[in-house]
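Appendix B, example 12.
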Amino acid sequence: MTCTVLPFTEDLIQVMTLTVSPDGEPLQARLELRWSRGAGRWLLSVWDDAAGELLAGNIPLQTSENVPDDLLRPFRYLRQGRGIGSLFCLRKAANPATLDPGEGNLSEFNIVWGDTYE
């Protein structure tokens, strides 16, 4: 499985472009991450930057207790069935300040994007 740890910071609004190849299918992606004060969580949107198409909007960054929670699983049908891979929010430490990333502690988590996890 090929994976990329996304280099997010504590900035409340972040935009980055990168080229990934989930499952060997190239994708020029634009990622938009923002802290939602109303929701009290980080929300991630994934765009096909070359096509200008929103692939997945306002995905809440959340972890899971015992099994990996693929945050992109609902979007596997996209791009003519080629999907957009898998995305996981993983705790770096056993006891982060919050169970899910919160305002001011995003650095306690790794956001990992890679091939589709079955």
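The two ends are 11 Å apart (CA to CA). Residues 14-114 form one domain.
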